[in-house]
Every structure is written in structure tokens, then in C-alpha cells.
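Project standup — Tuesday

K.O.: blocked on the structure for the chain from last sprint. Re-posting the sequence here as requested.
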Amino acid sequence: MGQSKVQEVHQPQPFCPSVSLTSHLCLLVALQHFSESIQEYLANLDKAPDPTVRKDTFSSEIFSAYEVLFNSWLQHREAKLRLAVVEALGPMSYLMPAEKLEEQLPRLIPGILSLYKKHTEAFCISKSLCQILEASVNIGSRSLDVQLEPLLSTLHPQISAPSDPSLPLTVKNHTEVLRCFTVLACSFPDRVLAFLLPKLESSNERTRVGTLLIIRQIINSAPSQMEMKKPFILSSMRPPLQDSNNKVKRTLVQVISAMAHHGYLEQPGGEAMVEFLVRQCALPSELHPKKQSPDGDDLTSDSVRSISVNTLFLLSTTVHRMTNVLWPYLLEFVTPMHFTNALTPLCKSLMYLAMKKQEEGEASSLLRYDLNATLPSPYALTSRLLVVSSQPYLGEGRGAAALRLLHVLRGSVHPALQHLWSKKVPLLVEHLEENTEKSLIQKEWEEKLLLFLQETLVAVADNTWICQFIPEMCGHLNSYNGIPLEKNFLYKCIGTTLGACTSKDLVQKQLQELLETARYHEEAEREGLASCFGICAIHHLEETLAKLEEFVKSDVFKRSVGLFSIFKDRSDNEVEKIKSSLILCYGYVAAYAPKELVLSRIEADILKNIFQYFNTKVLGIKVETKDLTLKLCLIRSICMISQAIHSGDRAGDFTFSRKAELVAQMVEFIKAEPLEVMRTPVRQRAMVTCTYLVVLEPQLSDPDRTELIDTCLAGVLSLPPPDQGKEKDENGGDVLHREMLYGDTLSALKDLLKSLLQRSLTPHGLQDMFAHLGPWIKSQKEQERQRAVEVSAALLEFYLTKLNVSTLIPFYNLGVLVALFSPRCSDSLAAVRRDAVDCVYSLLYIQLCYEGFARDHRDEMVEGLKALKKGLEDPDFTVLFHTCNNIATVIGKRVPPDQLMSLLLAMFEALADPDKNCSRAATVIINSLLKERGGVLQEKVPDILSIIHSKLEEVDEEHVRKAAQQTVYILASQHKSVVVSSLLGSTLPFDSHTCTMWRSLAGEPTLTSQILEQLLEKVNRDVPYKESKGFLLGSGSERVATLLPLAATCALYEIMSAPEAGAAVLGLYSPLFVTLLLRLSCTVGVQLPKSLQSKEKRSQSQSSAAPRSLQPCSSAVDTLKVMLTRGGSEEVTRAVGSAGGWEMMVNPERHHEGIAVLAGAMARHAGPRLPLVVKNLIPTLNSVFDSQRVTTTAFFSELLSSNVVNDLILLETMLDNLTGRQKDSSMLVRMLALRGLGNIATGSPEKVRKHGAQLLASMVNGMDDKDDPNNLVALEAMSSLSKLLDHVEERDIQAMLLHIAIRIRPFFDSEQPQLRQASIVLFGNLTRFSEANCEVFFEQILNGLVTLLLHLQDPKPEVVKACKFALRMCGPSMGCEGLCEMFLNHLREDRSLHYGEFMNNVCKHLMQSYPEMLNRLISTNLFYFKSSWVDIRAAAPMFIGFLVLHVDEEHCHQVDLDQLISALNLLLKDPIPAVRVKVAETLGRLVRVL
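H.V.: unblocked you, prediction finished:
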């Protein structure tokens, strides 16, 4: 229904009653819209289709509805219904009859006002109330007068309550309430103001803000009613003007804006409002601005300032009536310092206002000082605007704004500036617009401003004007206290202006005043004062110097010192500050003054006075100062003086006599600084000063130069990183400051070293510089290395840039320098790696320049270093070392040949680098260089090897050891003979490092084989020993080992001990084995030279582990063992070891036994190796050395005991060669040869028959050996013959059977049990061949029978065993079956023998079978009465007794009783009782034959 009324606004609508809540709401909406539609219809009656419609047409119906709604529905409990009623009552009030509305107002308004307490959402209430108030005013109601107080009291809190922009209804409610106040203010202006204005003094912030909002509303909406109230309203604004609340301030600014539009500010008191606005523009920015909340409860001062700035600019530019209010009044706020933050908006507004005035035709008289006495003077404005322009980007760009204001004021400042400023100021503004705060160079900008000032003073050309300008500027100095940068610039402006002043008296007066009033304890003040004096000295040098000297002598200075002395702690400090300022003034004077005038005054006046103030010994007495400021000022002054001298036209002719003293003073300053931290710029400034001092004449002496460099390097490079300091503020500001200070100090160090290098731009000068830098480049501390390499890179780049080669000279130290930096390409720090590549890059280009290439020449390979830098970013070792290898390739191709060795030598030094990465890189580079260029270094190989050895001693690192091995291998692959010879020349015994170098040669089989062959040749080339006569008379000679074979043997051991040598050893198995076997043979019993004996003892005593013996024989054994192991014959080594063969070989007496053990093991485990071994050994059978013949013969002898020689078809060869050894001069060789021949019976028995005659002949010859005093050859011959007899042809033995039997018979009684055993065994074996010669051999049996029977009592069991064997063998040949059976039964090896009973039975059988032999048997027994063996002496008489006992009577005559008794009686005296007993028993048995 409501919508239909809106759509049909020009059609009359019937009234529709409702009965339900929903119907009520619909009806209320319909009534509301109906009433609004009627109002709109009536408002546009001229366009209505029925112009006869009037308000009273609906009045009665509307009033009827009103009564129902107000009296009944408005009291309903449902809030929605009540609000709907209120919304409907507002538009309905317009249609009610006037008298009825007047009648209802006393009830209606309180009723509406009471709803504010019942409903939080007040928009509908306020809107309806406003409509009711408007309807009441329209009818001229008198009831409002009575309702005014309740209305104001109820509505004011609605405005004071904050509105939330996020809730649109609260904002709308504020708007409706303000409309209510507008309605009331138009009808009751006095009463409304009387209600509002006192509330401006309320203590409640919201009340004050709400009141100001209402005042702004009524100023804007009720101008005619407020016209006469302006003074009253302005005077009531005093409390808000003093309010510090930001929300009050912001609202007041809005009120001021409204006032400006309605002419309030033109009234008396309006200036206060403008001043307030400017003060808000000058509010300082918050350091940490907070985010403003939506309801504005925590409004920031920045927000207030922003709205104030915008308001001021809008008033200046859009409110025409404000022009005369603001101009020139705003100029009064330009010069006061507390309005500094408002300068930008002020200048912008003033510039706009001035331009508007110019457009109005007031260009010539913009500033009327006759009408505005409070305006700042042109001097003050110029000074102020120029000074604030020095910091142009502060205050939102106040520099450009100030300059633009100056531009529009040019005619008012001075008529002569119209043209100059019109041209210059826009250029300055343009410069600012082209830059930003970061890009603007402050020094350059200040110079532009000072030049602008200077040109301004020239353009004015009025000394009177200048003389007024100077005091004005000086008077502003104190205003800038706390603003150091601007005050400093103001000093410079004063200096510039003083320079333009032609009145010398004024100049001196102002300088005096400046000296008297300066705040010396502030650094910026000292700096500014000094710069002022310096700039002034450009035109007034004499006056400036005179005033400085005069001031020190003046009462003012003396009073200052006297006053300060009262406060003893403060005295020294303040006086030092004054002195510091004066010293700095002298420095600036020297820097700025004309060089042609100041040079003559530097030493005579300036330095003399400077050191008079600085109480440190430079020219005289020494009183050490601790004041930092004084030090810094002295350093600055000396620096500026040096710069002044250097920049002068006569710098080359000027001799600075005090230069060395000044440099020494700077060095002392640097030394005095703590090394653990850098808090002051003393180091940096002292080095900057030295940078300018060192270029002056005369040149520094070498000691002074050295001390300067070392001190500066230590003072900077050794500092800890800047972030290690403890002091730090919350934002890390202190760290940032230290980092900047570190950076500046490092830059100063670079510049100083460049300056020193410039004086000696030669290879020698470069070498000298890096002699100082070298230890720092290799430092273990990361920050020291990083800085040192960074400095080095800068120096080398500088050297390359400045290098101008006129004659081709050698860059003799290229190798040393490249070696210094190239290992750093793999430093643990990425920054060091990058800088190190740059250093190598520069060095190689310097070399190219010295070779004659132009400086702009680009070498493709060297340029490749830049690309390699990317590979150095990766900390992975593999990538780093690959990159280092590539760098080494570039270096290797570009370093000249004459530098190669020095490069390598220096690179070897880098192996000891504390940074392992760099040490590894050095190894990579060394080996890469050697691969690339090592072929030309043959003569240097011994030196290189010696260095490698020394580095292995020095550096105990695994990577260095491996790299050194690789280096030796590379050298050996290029120069095998030289490497072998050099290493063989190493001191014996080889230390572990030499051993490491030898083992490095085992890496590649082909090379290893060649090395091994060379070493074998070394072993065989020289004699193995030399005969040395004993020192004592009668002592025999001894054999002393020669060194070369000994060293070669040790070298062979080391190489073959490396597992990698296996392939090479296998390839050279035979020559290695033979050579080492023969070497072993020649070293048995050989002594070390005396020079090595002591070393051998020391090494054994010092070594904790069991050291390898240097003794020649032991060394040879060890080498042979390792050769067998590496050659795949580990089983041979183990077998020999388990049999004790290695120990036997070392023993001269058992050497051949050890060789036999070795040969046996070889036959068992290394058979396939034997043909070549035998082939290589055969020639040594003719060796001049007995030991070699013995060893070879022993080896062959044992081999023949194995069938392997037959399998390998070696038997005949070895047989022939051993047979040939029967005439050898060595008895041991002859013996071993026979043993070998005999071993054929064991190893190849089937071959014995074939070679029987030859073998038997050899055995017989052996038994007949004439040169065999100990019968060892014969013994061997008999033993071997016994083995052979089982396999020879009978015909071969028959011919020599008797000869052998006769030849061996004497050995039966030999003192040597071996001979007895061998001969008896052989005799027993011979009996098998006795059948053909039975009678002849039987005779031999009988001849030996007594001996064999008696030796059954031999003290040696083996001889007893042999006798049993022989008797058993003889038994069948004796023709006595009983005797034969008895021998077989009783003489078995496993059976014990009762000798007496056995002999009794034997004698019984003998006498029965051979009674005729009685005398022969007795005679043989008598021979043994003198035997040395007791048992045999006892057995002989017993044997005789048994013979006599069993002989038949007819044969008793054979006994020579006299001889027998005589012999027995003699034997009866034997000292052994057992012998005498046997003799007595025999004597008893002789009764039978008497």
C-alpha cells in the first residue's frame, strides 16, 4: 500500500484501517509515504494535474490517524511498531491542522524526546523530530519556546556521542540532529548560543567536540542569524584554541574553515584563529605513527596536521576574501623556529597569495613595511628561506617551496635581484625536482646554494645592504641550536657573506663575535664555525689568520680558560673543545684560501699555531692528550692542509719539511686505537690524512713507509666484524653506524695503499706492498682474510688502471703473486673467492701489459676467469675444486716460462695454509700446472721433490699427502729417471714422507713398471757391498753395504707396499723375484755403513711402533716378502714364515736352509712362475759372488725335490747346471749341488734311472772331494747317494760298489754323528747290490761288522738306528741264517735291544759259523778299547768275552793271550766303572782259553 502511494503521488488515496501487527506496520508505512507524497504533491503544485488540492483537504483524516497513533500505538510494547509510528508522525505533522499541531506540541515533543531513552537506534526519532520542529516553525508555534531547553539538553548528547562510519544510521542520526539545531538556531539564536558556548569549557572531550560541530553547523546553516554574533563567537573560541586534544583540534580546524568562508576571520580576533591553524600545520610528525581506529578515538597529531595543511591551502587558494587576511600576515610565521614544520604549507600559501597580489597589480609593493611593522625583514626572510633550503626534502619538500617563495619575493628583497633570481631560482628548483632525497648529493647542493648566495651578493653590489645582512644572519645562529645541519649551513652562508663584505673592520668584528659566542662543545658548531672561517679566508686570508691568533691572546680566551679551570673536570674538556675548533679553523683556512697565498703560511703560521694548541710532541714538548675531539680536529686540519698543498699549482716544487713528523703522528694515533673494537673515526681520518701526506715531497723513508703500512693494516684488518659489538639500540642503529664506519675505514685504507703504490708503480713496488699484505691474506680469521683480499683486489685493479709501460720489462714477481691469490679462489668465504679471482684476473692482465699488449687488450682465456666466478658461489668442494682447476689452466697458459718455477715454489707454500679449502686448492693448482707445463722443468725436479718433502713434514693433513703423491706421480710420468734418482738420494732410512712419495709412483701400472725396472737396474748396477778392514790388528775384514742398492731396495719395498702396484709387480714378477733373491743373498752378514748405524739405532729407539729395519739383509727380506705378497704369492710368504724361513735367510749359517724353504714354498704355491725364475737364476750360478751361487744352488736344490720341475721341463737344465757346480770354489755350493742331485730321487724318481750314471759319478766325486776338511761334501754325497740307490740301475752301481764301500768305511767311526749315520746307512743300502760281488762285498761286511755291532751302543740314537738298518741289510749276505734271523728280529727300529744278551747270541752264531774269524774280530775290538765313547769302550771287551766264551777249543789258539790280557789290563784302568766291570767280566771268561 505504501509503495502504491509513492507511485501515485498525484492521486488522492483512501484511508485503510488495520487490525494485526503486520497490518499495523503496513498501515504506518502507508501513512508515512502517503504524507510524504502529499507534501511532494503540494510542493510541486504548479506541475500537478489538480492544482485545487490543498493541505487542509487531508488535515482532519491525518489528525484522526495521529490521535490513534500517538495515543494508542505509540505506547505499544513492540519496538518496531513504536519506531514505525514515530517515522509516520514526522511527515504527518506537516498535514495536521495548525491549531491541532500547536495544541499537541506540548505532548508530542516530550513524547518523541522520551523515545531516545528507549531506543538505541535514534535515526528515525531524530528525523521525525526534525520534521515536527520544521512544521512547528512553519506555523509560528509559540510552544517551542517552552520546549527549547529540553530539546537542547536532549539533542546535544546525540551529537557528543561518536558516530561510527561503518554504521551509516549513526552518521545519518548526527546529520538529522544537526538539522534540528539549525532549525532551533534560526528561531532562537541567542538562546542556542547561550546554551552552546559555555560547553566549550567542559572537561568532557566529547562535549567540547560535539559543541564545536554544532557551532560549525549553525555558522554554515544560519549565517544571517549569526552575523551579529561573530565577535561573541570568536571571543568564545579562546578555550578551544588552548585545547591539546587532537579531536578537539581537528574539529576546531573545521570550525575555522567555516568561519573563513563566512567572514569571521576578518573580525578582530581572527588572527588568533589563523595562528592556531598555522600551529597545527607545524605539529611535529610522530616517530611511530599509529593506525587510526575507525571511530577516531585515538586520532593522531599527523592527522590533525594533515587536515590543517589542507585547510590552510584551501583558504589561501579558494576563499577570495581570505587573501587580505593571510597576506602578508602569514610571513610572520616564516622566521620563528617553532613554525619550522609548517614552512612548506606556509611557503606554498604565501607563494599563491603573492602571485595573486601580483596579478592584482601589486608586484612592486608586495611587502609594505610601513603598514606592517611586525613583518620579518628581507634579510631575515632571505636568510631563513636559504638556510631551510639546504635540507630540501625535509618537511615534505620545503626546499622547493622556500625557493619558490624567494622567487616571488625577489623584488621585495632587493630590486637588483629581479633578473638574477628569475633565472637562477627555477634552475635550483628544477635540480631538486630531478633528484630525490637519496639521489641528491648534499655537498653539491650546498655548493649550488652558496654560489647562488654569492651571485646574489654580487648582484646586490651594495656594501651597506651586505653589512646589514651579516648581523641578521649572525643573530639567527642561536635560533638553530639543536638543528646542526642547518646551523652548519648558516655558518657557511655567513662566511660567504663576510667574504663579499668590503669592510674589513666589520669582518674582523663579526669573526670575533663568532669566536666568542660559538658553542664549542657541539661538533656541528665547530664544523660550521671552521667552514665559516675557511670560506671567509678566500677573500680575507690575512684578517682571518690574524683574528685566530689574536683570539688566543685575547682576554676572552683567557677568561674562558680561567673560568673553566674552576671546574676542574669540565675545564680540560671545554678548553680542549675550544682548541679543537681553532685547529679546525686553521685547516679550513688552508683548504679554502688561495693556494698562491696560503702555501707560504702553512709551516710558518698555520702549523705552528695548530701544534701550539695541540699538546702532543710533533715539534717539541710532549703531553699526551686523551681528548678525542682534539685528535679528530688535528687530523682533519692536517688532512685539509695536505690537500691544499697537493692541489696547488706549485705542489711539485713545494717541500713539506714536516711531512715525516706528521705521518709519524698519524701512525701514533692509529696505534693508540683499541684493536678489539672501532668506536671512533680516528683510524679512518688518520689514514685519509696520510693518503694526502704521502704524495707530497719529500718521499717517506723505507722504515717510515713500512711502519705506516704495517700499522694501518693491523689497525684495520685485525678488527672484529662490526656486528660483534655489544652496544646496540633497539633498532640496531649502533651496528649500522659501526658498519658504515668500518666501510669508510676500509675505503680509507685502500686509498692510502693506492697512494703509496702510486709512488712506486713497478713490480718491485707491488711486491713490497704484498709483502705486507701476505700474512693477512693467509690469516686464519675470516674477517682478516676477507678484508685483505678485498684490499688486494682494489690495489691490483688500481695498478692495472694506472700502469703505463714504456719499455718491456719482466714482471718478475708474477708467479709469487698469482700463488698468493689463486688458492684463495676456494676460500671458505664466498666474498674472498670472488675477490681472489679478480686479483688473478688483474695480475694476468698486468703481465700482458708488460709483454707489450695495450691496456684495453682483451685476452679470451683471461676473460674466462670472470665466467668462472659463478662456479665459486657454490660452497660444494667438488664444484670449487673443478673451478680452481679451470683457473689453474688459464694461469698455466698465461704464466711465462721464467715465472713457472717461482709460481710453483710459492704454491707449495700455500699447502700449509690454515684454511683447508685453500690448501686443497693449492694442490689442485700445482698438479694442474705440472700437467700443463711440467715437461720443461726437468732440471728443477730435484728442487720440487725436496719442497714436497719439506711440506709433507710441515703439514700433517691427509689431503696434502694425497696431493703430494699426485704431484710426484705427475713429475715421474714426465721425468722418470730424474724423479727416481732424486728420491734415491733421500737420506736413509727413508722417513715416512719419502715413503709416501715412493708409494705415489705405484698408481699407474705402465709407469710403475718402468719405475720398478729402473730401480732393479739400480740394485744390480753397483756392487752390493765393499770389504772393509777391521780397525783392530788381527780382526778380519767386514762387508759394508753400498748405498745405492740399499736405497733402491728400500724404494722397491715402498712402491710394492702400495696395493696399486699389484699389476706392475705381476708383470715383472720374475726379474723382481730374482733380483731381490740375489740381493738378499749378497746382504747376508753385510753391515750398514757406520754413518747409518747410528741413525738406525735412533729410529728404533724413537719409534713407538716396531720400525722396519734398515739392515741390508732384513731390508732385502722385507722387500722380497712384499714383492711376493703384491705379486699374488701370499701363500708363499705365509708358508715360508710359518716354517721360520725368513729368519733362516738372515742367519749366515742357515741362509741356504731358508732359501730351501722358500724354494719349496715356490714349488708348492707358485709353480707357474718358476720357468722364468729358473731361467733368470741360471746365469747367477757363475756369479763372482759366492753368496749368489750358494743362494741359487740352494734354490735349485730344493726345487729338485719337487716334481714341479719335471712337469715344467726344468729337470735336465737344472741337473746339468748343478752337475757343473761340482768343481765350484765354494764348498757349500758343491755340497748343495750334491743335495740337489740327490733330491731328484724325491722329486722325480723316475728320472734317476735315466741319469743314474751321471748322478752316481757326481756322488762318488763328492765323496772324493779333496777340499772338504769337514767332510760336509762327502756327507751330502753319502746322504744323496742313499736316496738315489733305490732308483738307479744295478749295473750302474756295480762298478763302483767296492770303491764306495771302502771310501765310506772310515766314516763309521767319525766324530761327526751325521757322517757316522750317513755312511752306515749308505753301507746298509749298498748291501742290496752285493750279490754280483758276493765274496768281495762279504769281506767288506766282515770288516765293518764289529764296528756296526759296537755302534749299537753309540751315544747318538740316529747312529744306533743306522746301525740296526745296516745290520738288517747285511744279515742275508752273511750266509748265516740264524744270525740273519736274529738281526731281523732283534734290530727292528721299534724294538728295544738288550745289548748284552744280544751280543752273547751274536757271538755264539759267529763262532759257530765263522770260527776262523776269531782273531780278526778280537783285533778289531781291541781297536775300540781307545774309543772316546764310554759305552763302546765297555762293549768292546764284552764283545771279546762273548767270542772267547763261545769259541771251540780247536780255535782257541787264534787268540794272542798276551796281547789280549795286556790290553785288558790296560783298559782295566779306565776311569769309568762300567768299563772296568766289562773288562773284569771278560778276564774271567779268558780262563776258558788258558
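K.O.: great, moving the ticket to review. Strands lie at 1025-1028, 1038-1041. The two ends are 190 Å apart (CA to CA).
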